[in-house]
Each structure stands twice: as C-alpha cells, then as structure tokens.
Amino acid sequence: MAVYAVWNNKGGVGKSYLTFQVASEYARTHPNQRVLVLDLCPQANSSSMILGGIEAGEAAIEQLSGMTPPRTIAGYINDRIVSPYVDTHSGASYLTQARTINNAVPANLYLICGDEELEMQAS
Ligand SMILES: Nc1ncnc2c1ncn2[C@@H]1O[C@H](COP(=O)(O)OP(=O)(O)O)[C@@H](O)[C@H]1O
Ligand SMILES: [Mg+2]
C-alpha cells in the first residue's frame, strides 16, 4: 500500500485540486485497487470536489457532517478523543464511497470527508 501526503502551510498553492486530480485519475487507471482520500483540511475543498463540486459537493459535506455521529474526519477524531488508548474498531464507518454521492467519479475512490469542526478539535 502506498501512502502519499499532500501538505503545504501556505494556502492557494493547489493542494486540494492536486489531491482531487491525482486520486481520481489513479483510481480511474487502476480499477483493481482501492484509493482512499483522507481529507485533513478543515476547508474540505478536496472532499467538495470529489463529492460533486461547489454546490453538490458542499451539500454532501453538510449532509455527512450533520449525521450522528458525523461521517467525517471529525466524527473519527471525536471517537479518539473520548477513548484515545482504546481501539474503537470504528474507522471504516467514517468512510464514504464517493460514487454513491457523485456518479462522475470511479467506484474505487473512497473518502474520509473533511470537516470544518477539525479546526476546533485541533486547538
Ligand atoms: N494546476 C492548476 N492550474 C490552474 N489552476 C489551478 C491549478 N491547481 C489549482 N488551481 C486553482 O488554484 C486555486 C487554489 O488551489 P487549491 O487546490 O484550492 O489550493 P490549496 O488547497 O493549496 O489552498 C483554486 O482556485 C484552484 O482551482
Ligand atoms: Mg485546500
């Protein structure tokens, strides 16, 4: 399994867009592999693009983050804050198969959706 981190402290340099493109294109050209995007940015722009773009994507993020528990990175972090040393065995329940929301992306593309709540959790 290969893991890639896309990081830069400065905003507006293309992290979100590059993540969307690289993940989608890799998934399209490697249909027998599963690709997971773990969106750790509170702005969640990669998640928005993967889930359908500015309007549909933002609506999808709102829907996922409004679930109980939120089906986003914030939901997972909440689990870990409550019991940091106990294996919750619950990571998989925070996954979204992007195709179930946006049929323009490959079926082997999975997402742990970003969430603005991460900003609060980080502090
Ligand atoms: N290769 C590119 N060519 C043209 N515009 C780009 C490219 N990559 C990103 N952009 C645009 O630049 C802006 C910032 O990119 P974004 O991915 O949101 O940056 P970051 O996540 O680092 O803040 C966005 O409007 C995006 O659409
Ligand atoms: Mg970004």
Automatic annotation (TrEMBL):
InterPro entries on file: AAA_dom, DNA_Partitioning_ATPase, P-loop_NTPase
Domain AAA stretches: 2-118
Instruction: Quote the Pfam families the UniProt record gives.
Output: AAA_31
Entries under CDD domains matching the protein: ParAB_family
**Alphabetized SUPFAM superfamilies for the sequence:** P-loop containing nucleoside triphosphate hydrolases
**PANTHER family, per the entry:** COBYRINIC ACID AC-DIAMIDE SYNTHASE, P-LOOP CONTAINING NUCLEOSIDE TRIPHOSPHATE HYDROLASE
Q: Under what name is this protein listed?
A: Cellulose biosynthesis protein BcsQ
**Organism source for this protein?**
Sphingomonas endophytica
